[in-house]
Specification:
Layout: H1 2-17, H2 47-59, H3 68-72, E1 78-81, H4 85-91, E2 98-100, H5 115-124, E3 127-130, E4 135-146, E5 149-159, H6 166-170, H7 174-195, H8 202-212, H9 225-246, H10 257-290
Parallel strand pairs: 1-5
Antiparallel strand pairs: 2-3, 3-4, 4-5
Helix pairs in contact: 1-7, 2-10, 7-9, 7-10, 8-9, 9-10
Length: 295
């Protein structure tokens, strides 16, 4: 009975995160791009992903530069720090703002930089950077205010880093990113079934799906549809992993501590692979907006 329930949950997970195009359809549904520039689901996307896309769009004339922060971070009540670097980088000839989503044990997406910069980026789990002259911006998100009246603030700190060779970015491929993430989901689903304990009940699946249901979450209109599709997939996988970690649905009866720890590790790995795909898809979109290459 328990194994049957787990298999059902895994099948539902795969149906949720695998677009129809992978299952044999010739086209994927285009997200609804007519609902406005953003909505309350946009927090699913890291601040650095949104800033990279909107800043790059502004650098290529799609909106005024002084509107970038408002468009990218409308859910943040107070923004401070070194964001004047965006204008400086543009004046120095940069045309694309990239994103890195590092995690403990895997900081490889961050350009070579000082130990202080690398530690800040890994601690934040995100940063933006320019490839030509080198330079990082790392956000620190925090709550402020009093009980019952709190706000969200983002403080951005600039660091130096090495330039990133253009070919290392242009080698990214959305098809490979999508395929790799789907294979990861299938593999982890099988491992989660073997561990036991259903990590997604109906409540958690609905919560995760609701976080990404309104498909635009603040992306510029010039974001290529193919990139939006992979961003949507990665965000959905990440949301499922997060909701499962917050409160996993356990079968009746005790679950061994080692199995619980194993499941937690698997869910962290799912989230890590989703973040990798999210960063790669965002950077392909950035390059397309900047005119470097098609998506």
């Amino acid at each position: 009975m328990i194994r049957q329930l787990i298999r059902q949950l895994i099948r539902q997970l795969i149906r949720q995160v695998i677009p129809q195009v992978i299952c044999g359809s010739t086209s994927a549904a285009r997200p609804d791009r007519a609902r406005g520039p953003y909505d309350d689901a946009m927090a699913v996307l890291p601040a650095s992903v949104r800033l990279a896309l909107w800043a790059t769009a502004a650098w290529h004339g799609h909106l005024p530069s002084d509107r970038v922060v408002a468009r990218a971070l409308p859910d943040v009540d107070h923004v401070a720090g070194d964001l004047d670097r965006l204008e400086l980088w543009r004046e120095l000839g940069e045309g694309a703002l990239f994103v890195a989503l590092p995690r403990p044990g895997d900081p490889t997406s961050v350009p070579r930089s000082s130990p202080e910069a690398l530690a800040a980026a890994v601690d934040a789990g995100e940063c933006v950077f320019v490839a030509g002259i080198g330079g990082l911006l790392v956000p620190s998100l925090s709550d402020y205010g009093t009980a019952g009246d709190t706000g969200l603030r983002a403080d951005w700190t600039a660091y130096d880093c090495d330039p990133t060779p253009r070919h290392r970015l242009e080698m990214l491929d959305l098809r490979h990113t999508e395929r790799t993430l789907l294979e990861s989901v299938r593999r982890y689903a099988e491992q989660l079934e073997a561990v036991g304990g259903a990590p997604w009940d109906e409540h958690h699946r609905e919560a995760a799906e609701g976080a990404v249901r309104r498909a635009v979450w603040g992306l510029p209109d010039v974001t290529p549809d193919r990139a939006v599709r992979v961003l949507t997939l990665a965000a959905r996988v990440a949301a499922l992993a997060d909701t499962a970690r917050v409160g996993a649905a356990l079968p009746r009866g005790p679950v061994a501590a080692d199995a619980t720890a194993r499941r937690e590790a698997l869910l962290r790995s799912v989230r890590g692979d989703a973040d990798t795909a999210l960063g790669e898809a965002a950077n392909v979109a950035v390059m397309a907006i900047a005119g470097w290459r098609p998506a």
